[in-house]
Amino acid sequence: MTSAIDLAERAVAAAEGDGAEAVVQTEHSGFARFAGSEVHQPTLIENVSVFLRVIRGNRVGTAAANLVDDEGLRELALRAGEAAEASPEDPDLPALADASQLPDVDGNDGETAALGPADQARLAAEAIAGAGDIPVYGFFTSGTATVAVVTSAGFAGEQTSTDAVALALAATDGASGYAEQTSWAVRDVDPAAVAREAAELAGRTANADELAPGTYRAVLGPYAVGELLQYFAFDTFSGLALLEERSFLGGKLGERHFDEKVSIADDALDPRGLPKGFDFEGVPKQRVPLVENGVLRGAVWDSASAKRAGGSQRSTGHAAPPAFRRWGPLPFALALARGEAESVDELVELVGDGVYITRLHYLGIVEPRQGILTGMTRDGTFRIRDGKLAEPLVNLRFTVAVPEVLADVPGLTRETTLTNQAAFYDERFAYGALVPALATARFGVTGNGGPPGI
Amino acid sequence: MRALCEEAVAAALAGGASYADARAVVRRSQLVATKNRRVDQVDDIESEGIGVRVLVDGAWGFACDRRLNETGARNAAERATSFAKAAPGKHERALAPVEPVQGDYRTPREQDPIDIPLGDKIALCLTAEEAAQNSAVKVTTAFVRAMRERKVLVSSEGTAIDQDLVECGGGIEATAADGEISQIRSYPSQHGGSSAGAGWEYVLGLGLEREAPRIGEQAAALLSAPICPPATTTVVLDSDQVALQVHESTGHPTELDRIYGTEAAYAGTSFLHAGDLGSLRYGSELMNITADPTTPGGLGTFGYDDEGVPAARTPIVEAGVLTGFLTSRETAAKLGNGGGGSMRADGWSRMPLVRMTNLHLEPGEGTLDDLLADVDDGIYLETNKSWSIDDKRLNFQFGTQVAWEIKHGKRGRMLRDATYTGVTPVFWGSLDAVGGPETWVLYGLTNCGKGQPGQHAHVSHGAAPARFRNVQVGVAPS
After folding, report:
1. pTM of the full predicted structure?
2. Chain A CB within 8 Å of residue B388 CB
3. pLDDT averaged over chain B?
4. Chain A residues 130-169 with CB within 8 Å of chain B
5. Cβ neighbours of B475 in A, within 8 Å
6. B367 near A354, Cβ under 8 Å?
7. CB-based contact B184:B46 (threshold 8 Å)
8. Which tens digit of pLDDT belongs to each residue from B48-64?
9. What is the pLDDT of residues B361-415, one digit of tens each?
10. Residues 218-237 of A with CB under 8 A from B
11. Residues ≥6 apart with Cβ < 8 Å to A311
12. What mean pLDDT do residues A289-304 have?
């Protein structure tokens, strides 16, 4: 079979214009999804997608297809060319990526790539067995995704990444617990342990109480921290959002707005995450400091937003996958720096009186400029009393300004966890946030939902 | 395509499947978006492939292949069968019976939206955007989209269906900012505008250019509007927000797969139980919800769903009482009631799931002004801005782009940053007026997410403005 980079080169060669860029994404994946301790949605995917941008003068058009024979590529180039012809001139069209030295990154594991349907089913079975008597819901998935980018300006890069995710919700009527593990190497994912963690947590959530709305001190476990940070980051740390005045960073760069224990970066080179060597325009990845010791430092950029910003701003290597491209540059490798706490229990002790939150559900951005989010807690919410986890709580509605959550942070754990942030829509693109558990002095609870469980 | 599907089904049966179906799909979609009077995106995407679903000893298997040829068809069938055989545990699954059908369906259309030149689509967006400009507006966007999908379904029970579907839509958005505050207005809806299962005449009928000045002016006016104060009060929702309310708090909870727990780990479950059918009071007697895949112009309009079940209108809530679910053949058999009809997959590479088709709040009577006239003191809320609901679909909080005071039956001051919150059956129980047929609008959204791996569904909701009493408005951040 033709390699992804060969296919990208053929697509660029088929283009007629003043420049061209081809992005090829291939996917070979298996998803063993289970519910009620039974696999019910097993999905095997094989696909190749080619996205071709053709430039004529200052006009640009994009077409995509999964027909990759010569005739298919000719048709693709024709449609991209027609799209370019139909477009008005764009005087600010950024240059295509040229040849560059790419960083060496991990992220491709042979054992993970070799997993087939029988293995994926076996690993799902391990999760089901690991939960014991309590019904378990979730999935084991593994996949291999290759991204190749070729431009007529001289860039040619290909990277194959593997990923494996085990996710488990152990749940009965009135009780539930959640756990997950994500890695680019399946050896680091133990589905049985994930299910055991979820089941053990579920066992402590029955007979949950309601909580009076108000502002509480809180400990957020790593799954909750990862999702809150990812949602906050979509607008806050996007260079395009900054230009369009919908980012919290607007007018505040260089100022301290968070607790000095809070440092955030986007770092796709970190081997503890899901490493990537270059973005979807062929720009090398780099570590981008976003917050340092509470001081707001910057955002991530793609070539279009960087050109629009002007001055010395350059792309930081954050052009999004084609499916996300309308949203501009996005941070897909967030990392919140670890703290000093030896355990979550130590954070609970620091908080003294408050709430513990395992996982969030259905976040909504209420006001991006102020970083206000709403959502629900689920699958492991507890009262903290006298520095210890106390009675379980029902699912809580929260409405928080994330900058306020991060403004007073009594502590973070030393241990960090790679939390899965991908829901695997469209072409497979695994990404996650590497975060510790976090204690905050301010977390706004605004209502009560139903009890845990199904 | 039909021959390839037949080949796949035969291969699956030969591999040990007791049931198999194959869907071959060829989809072409276009998106044209402009931002700040420049082209932001011009995409023309084509995707084709085949997905094969099998039952082996009661276990499902699904596999897909992009190659629409004999090799791809057989490969998908064999892999689906092997995956089903590998599924751990014992499985027992029954499917509600469906009469095998040889049929076809074509979306009625005047102009195929894919045939409209890209240049015309760009010009429409730029013209609409231009009309939204004013000095306070910092970002304007306009977009149009078009999709054409041919879908062939063949099952081992003798069904063979060929469907030719089109849809298109568009929208405009204006964001005003003054350095501290950012406010957005959009038309005809939020969440990517609105789409319909119709030809290009739908997009032309939206009148994006006509509505653009109002959108720009309201975005600017919101910058100096006061924040909506917290209160427990009467709210009137515009038809767009009612559509979102229907989607989140009646559509998803009545999906029978959620009720049976198969979405528990991701999208969540439901506060409903299978035994609630026919007895649970969902809302007031004015609440009538219907699932109708025959609605002209709906994004969930088809001849047959992805299990080959013919489109049929199903009451979901009648006079406030739960009377129906959205079902698949499997969940209907488990319930012992109904025959499915809501199974849809996102393209060829995903397994069908229970999805909304077109889910409507049936109209009542009166105009929006009539609804407002009966409010001495309340809030009128228009166009969704933020949305969140818990995993059982009980506790929700929605925000709207704009709100107005209602004083003595009339619209008063404009308000910004309005949210309202509630608990589903309590909220619907407080429904005391629904606008009449002349106020009923069909909205189509394309971003309904569900499943793992994730799937987007395109669904429509017909809704009229509606009035609710004793609603909690406004939540202050911590």
Report:
1. 0.96
2. yes
3. 96
4. 135, 137-139, 141, 167-169
5. 374, 399, 446-447
6. no
7. no
8. 999 999 999 999 999 99
9. 999 999 999 999 999 999 999 999 999 999 999 999 999 999 999 999 999 999 9
10. none
11. none
12. 98
* Joined tokens for residue A385: 């009393």
Residues of chain B numbered 69-88 and touching chain A (CB < 8 Å)? 75, 79-80, 82-84, 86-88
For B232, the enclosing helix (H) or strand (E) is strand B231-237
Residue matched to tokens 């081997």? A271
DSSP string, B399-422: EEEEEEEEETTEEEEEEBSEEEEE
B408-to-B376, B379, B451 alpha-carbon distances in Å: 4, 11, 47
Buried b (16+ CB within 10 A) or exposed e, A177-214: bbbbbbbbbbeebbbbbbbbbbbebbeebeebeebebe
Q: How far is B200 from chain A (nearest CA, A)?
A: 18
Rounded to the nearest angstrom, the minimum Cα separation between A155 and chain B is 22
Core vs surface per residue B232-246: b (16+ CB within 10 A) or e: ebbbbbbbbbbbbbb
Distance from CA of B381 to the nearest CA of A (A): 15
Could you tell me if B300 and B462 are in contact, meaning their C-beta atoms sit under 8 angstroms apart?
no
CA–CA separation, B420 and B397 (whole Å): 6
**Dist. CA B74–CA B52, nearest whole Å:** 9
Count of other CB atoms within 10 angstroms of residue B278 = 11
| A400 with B179: Cβ contact below 8 A | no
Q: Exposed e or buried b for every residue in A39-55, given b needs 16+ CB within 10 A?
A: bbbbbbbbbbbbbbbbb
Omega before residue B453 within 30° of 0, cis:
yes
- Cβ distance A366 to B386 less than 8 Å, yes or no, reads yes
Q: Is the ipTM of this complex over 0.85?
A: yes
Angstroms from A224 CA to nearest CA on chain B: 14
- For A69, list phi and psi in degrees, rounded to 5: -80, 175
pLDDT in tens, B244-297: 999 999 999 999 999 999 999 999 999 999 999 999 999 999 999 999 999 999
- Interatomic CA distance for residues B407 and B124, integer angstroms: 39
Q: Find tokens 């767009």 and name the residue.
A: B240
Q: Is B66 on the interface with A (CB under 8 A)?
A: yes
Q: CB contacts < 8 Å between A and B, how many? A: 283
CA dist list (Å): B213 to A224, A232, B169, B175, B268: 41, 31, 20, 13, 40
Do the Cβ atoms of B54 and A117 come closer than 8 Å?
no
Distance separating alpha carbons of residues B478 and B473, to the nearest angstrom: 16
The reply to whether A82 touches chain B by the CB within 8 Å rule is: yes
